[in-house]
Please model this.
Amino acid sequence: MGTSASSNGPGSGVSLDPEWLDDIEIPNDEQKSDGNVSSGVIIAPRARFSNARRNLGEYVRSGDRNSLRKSLGNYSRNGMGGSQNFARRMRVSTSIAGGMFQTFRSLRDDTNFELRSVISKLKEQGANASKIISEFISHVCPDGGSLDEISSRNSGTAALSEFLERNPDADIVNLSDDQIWSLTSSFLANEIFSRIQMDIGQAFETRDIPFPDRISRMNEMKDFIQVEIATQLNEIRSRDIYNADISKLFQKTIQNTFELYEVEI
Model:
């Protein structure tokens, strides 16, 4: 994992919730945006990420988890207008997560599912894991050139690759419910980490901290987010979800996660 993913991040005077997100075409998306858009455009304030960047810098230098929690809380509350707004900003990611969730279940439960046949043929031809992952990602992720679209493909590929490295005998057309939830959780955590990296990840580029330490902090931060996302998803699993809009539940997962971080500031 490199440290060049971030930019200067979005500044003030722009919408906290860009309308162009709703123009991204998500393959096989049966659960469209709920249209729950605020009546006016919320404009980002000046220095929206200043506290988040400062706390993240402290975390990178010291490894202090309290600084990381404060950074994530400030990022959500002040940088993104609160956990609910941040969750809505991630709606492309949550829609894709919902598609992934349903696709894994269809691969397992529907013998007539087209992607199942495609993957089976790839296996018969001796295709490696990378080829199979690529086919799956093409099915569930948009292929446009925006940062959000590129991020979703990278996050999906990373989640599947990490899963198959840990579970080399796993068959993605026959995953258990536990495995499906785990993969979805990993995808969401990767997406959240990627979004934060793009917005305030400059702290990981400072030259006065050894490169191995910066990489270690990045991995620790992603794992930290992953643990809380997994915890919140497990809370969702304890409820009746079978008639629910899965994408909305994933948005709620992000909202609940960052509500907890906001308590720290």
